Every structure is written in C-alpha cells, then in structure tokens.
C-alpha cells in the first residue's frame, strides 16, 4: 500500500522582527545573524497565540469536510505543550470540528516528535486503509531576550494529512534512526525558556546525521546520486548546511551542485520564520515543494529529523504526479505578505507579555490578532479558545 503526505499546510503568527535590526539593537554585526546563523526574519507569537492555536490554524487551511470525517487519529508533536495531562491534540480536534470517533494524542521528543507521529500514522493507515491521520508540529521557540539563543527563536506550525495514495509525497519504509541519552538541549518543567549547550548540540546534530546516513546507505545501497534534494531539521538554516556539506564529496560535481541549490530552496521559508522546533523539517520540505521549479514527479527526497536529547532519523519520499497542483502556494504567499513587521522595542514588549503563572483568570485583547483561531483568555485555570469562522 502506498502511504504518505496527502496534504500539507503552514501557519505563522501575524508579527515578525527583522534580524538585521535585531542585530543592530544588540550591538552585533548583522552578518552574524543573516549569514552566520542564516536567518532574515523571526516570527513572533502574541499572547493570543500558543502551540494549540498555531496548530489549529495550520490545519484549518488544508482540511475539508471529507477529511473531517475520515481523520480518526490526531498526532500533535510539540515541546510547547500547555498542560501536563490534557493533550494539545484534543483541543485541536475540537477547534477543527473533527469526527468525534477518533484518537487524539500529544507526542514529545524535542524537535523529533512530529516525525514520530508520521511513522505512527503510517502504521495506522496500513491497518485502516480508509482512515486519514492529522499530524502536526507546532511550537514557540523561546530562549530569552539578549541571550545567545535569541537569534534562533521563532513560532509556527505545519500540519499534514497522512493517507493512502497520497497526492504529494509517498513515504518509503527504509528509514534509519538512532537514539542516545545526551543533554544538548532541554527545558525543565519549571522554566519558560529552554537551555542549550550550543556547541555540543551542533556536534551531536551532525554526528546523528552521519550515523543514520551511513546506516541508510548500508541497508539500501543508495547514494547521493539517488536524491533530488535533502531536507533538514533547521533550528537555524545554517545548521542543515553544516550537516549536508559533511557528505557532499560523496557525489559528483553535478550532484553536489543540485543538492546545494535545492538546499537553498528548502530554507527560504525557514529564513523568514525562524525555529519552530517540531515543524522545522516540514517547513523546509514545504519550502522545497513550493519554491522549486526543477524537481519532477518520481524523484526522491531525503529528510533528516533530529530531536535533542536525542533522537535522529533519516527517511525518504517520492514525489507524486502533479504534486504542485495540490499545494497552497498562493495562500502561503499571502500569509507572508500579511504579516506585520514590528520594531525591536515592540518585539520585546510582545515577548514579555505572557500569561499569568499563578493561575489567575484573564481576558485577552484579540483585536490585533487577525488569526482565525486564537486564545481569548483563561478562566478557572482553563484556556478559552475561539474559532472565528465556526
């Protein structure tokens, strides 16, 4: 049975800050952010947007009435969960009006968990061929103002419908994966912001990539020449490039040039959004699919997923006939056009406007948030969500 990504959608919050202006405000050479890290803009979530609303807004644009009936499993990968007990997927299930006879589960393993969701979805579809699965990666990356990690923040979500006979990308079964207990990045339950050992995390990201790539070649006998493009998890866009260049010499000059060009295409959206943790790899895939004008149906795409702590996986997909027809290119172009650039001062104000940490009730002002789905407040320790179009 052919199983894979049938639909894919993306959502970013309505604000962003320009990385050149942020660098200047921090007394840093802008090239450090735009070239050294590889980021042009950073998406910024107002207090009315959290992982749940980002996820629901991403899924809202791609699902139709048939999907609502056939989706019987919602898998939500996030490291920005809002409750220790109740799954964020349950909130999304309700906000989208999905078939009630469904399973809804939140998954966690740093930036890897949406990939785990995809692999679980494949198993579910294999057992239930007429079902569809909604897989979401949504996060808000926070390190704090003026911290070393500030330039690698961001916010957004990618939603995918997994089904048999997919219209976009058939997912192959020969993936390779690796786990090791390390402390390269973590966020304790008591902390709003993440902690990271940056140099060590970069080293481990590349090490894990090399391990799963070597295992993949050993199992399949394939080489770089078999791929039209490789997509990477991108906590910042220079990170994927660092991993890619460790294996480029395995290919001919022609193969190297093709992979380098398509890598640049795959990071265009990420450069404008920043780090969205669980959704970052799939934002790269979306950017590649929507922005390229050379990759043809039948060609193979490699994907590298990495979640600190750490789990890595390399897996592959084959582009389907007329895949471009089933993308939402105009909608995503409009999403980028409609965002509002804010000053560094306004960015700092929005960043520091957080929800009460003591359980107090609050009603949020939503006039400045045009998103279809938003958080309207907290009452009796319960988050109150609104879907404007329902």
Secondary-structure blueprint:
Blueprint: E1 3-11, E2 15-18, H1 19-25, H2 30-37, E3 41-44, H3 51-60, H4 65-70, E4 71-77, H5 88-96, E5 103-107, H6 113-127, E6 132-141, E7 154-164, E8 169-171, E9 176-179, E10 185-186, E11 195-196, H7 198-220, E12 229-232, H8 237-244, H9 253-266, H10 268-273, H11 280-291, E13 300-307, E14 311-319, H12 329-338, E15 340-341, H13 344-352, E16 362-363, E17 373-379, E18 382-387
Parallel strand pairs: 2-15, 4-5, 4-6, 12-13
Antiparallel strand pairs: 1-7, 1-8, 2-3, 6-7, 8-14, 9-14, 10-11, 13-14, 16-17, 17-18
Keywords: Acyltransferase, Transferase
Domain Hydroxymethylglutaryl-coenzyme A synthase C-terminal: 178-248, 256-353
EC number: 2.3.3.10
Structural notes for this entry:
It comes from Oceanobacillus luteolus. With 390 residues, the protein is α+β, with helices and mostly antiparallel strands. The chain folds into two domains: 3-168 and 327-387, Peroxisomal Thiolase, Chain A, domain 1 (3-Layer(aba) Sandwich); 170-322, Peroxisomal Thiolase, Chain A, domain 1 (3-Layer(aba) Sandwich), CATH 3.40.47.10. 35% of the residues lie in helices and 25% in strands. The protein has 13 helices and 18 strands. It has helices spanning 19-25, 30-37, 51-60, 65-70, 88-96, 113-127, 198-220, 237-244, 253-266, 268-273, 280-291, 329-338, 344-352; strands at residues 3-11, 15-18, 41-44, 71-77, 103-107, 132-141, 154-164, 169-171, 176-179, 185-186, 195-196, 229-232, 300-307, 311-319, 340-341, 362-363, 373-379, 382-387. Strands 1, 4, 5, 6, 7, 8, 9, 12, 13 and 14 form a ten-stranded mixed β-sheet that branches. The protein has a three-stranded mixed β-sheet with strand order 3-2-15. Strands 16-17-18 form a three-stranded antiparallel β-sheet, with helices on one face. A hairpin with a 2-residue loop joins strand 17 and strand 18. The model has no long low-confidence stretch (mean pLDDT 97).
């Amino acid at each position: 049975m052919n199983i894979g990504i049938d639909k894919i959608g993306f959502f970013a919050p309505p604000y962003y800050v320009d990385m050149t202006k942020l660098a200047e405000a921090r007394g840093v050479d802008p090239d450090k952010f735009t070239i050294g890290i590889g980021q042009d803009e950073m998406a910024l979530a107002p207090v009315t947007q959290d992982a749940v609303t980002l996820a629901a807004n991403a899924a809202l644009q791609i699902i139709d009435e048939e999907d609502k009936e056939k989706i019987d499993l919602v898998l939500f990968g996030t490291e920005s969960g809002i409750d220790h007990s109740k799954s964020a997927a349950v909130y999304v299930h309700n906000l989208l009006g999905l078939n009630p006879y469904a399973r809804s589960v939140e998954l966690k393993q740093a930036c890897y968990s949406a990939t785990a969701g995809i692999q679980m979805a494949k198993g579910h579809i294999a057992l239930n061929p007429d079902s569809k699965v909604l897989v979401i990666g949504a996060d808000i990356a926070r390190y704090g103002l003026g911290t070393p990690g500030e330039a690698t923040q961001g916010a957004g979500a990618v939603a995918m419908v997994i089904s048999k006979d997919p219209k976009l990308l058939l997912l192959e079964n020969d993936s390779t994966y690796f786990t090791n207990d390390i402390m390269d990045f973590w966020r304790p339950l008591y902390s709003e912001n993440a902690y990271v050992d940056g140099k060590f995390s970069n080293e481990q990201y590349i090490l894990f990539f090399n391990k799963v790539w070597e295992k993949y070649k050993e199992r399949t006998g394939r080489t770089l020449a078999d791929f039209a493009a490789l997509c990477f998890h991108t906590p910042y866009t220079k990170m994927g490039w660092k991993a890619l260049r460790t294996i480029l010499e395995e290919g001919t000059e022609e193969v190297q040039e093709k992979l380098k060009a398509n890598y640049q295409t795959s990071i265009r959206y990420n450069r404008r959004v920043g780090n969205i943790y669980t959704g970052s790899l799939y934002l790269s895939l979306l950017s590649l699919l929507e922005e390229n004008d050379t990759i043809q149906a039948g060609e193979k795409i490699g994907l590298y997923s990495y979640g600190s702590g750490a789990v890595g996986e390399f897996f592959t997909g084959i582009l389907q006939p007329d895949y471009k027809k089933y993308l939402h290119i105009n909608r995503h172009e409009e999403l980028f056009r409609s965002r509002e650039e804010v000053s560094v001062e306004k960015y700092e104000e929005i960043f520091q406007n957080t929800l009460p940490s003591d359980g107090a009730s609050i009603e949020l002002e939503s006039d400045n948030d045009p998103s279809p789905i938003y958080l309207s407040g907290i009452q009796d320790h319960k988050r109150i969500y609104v879907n404007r179009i329902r």
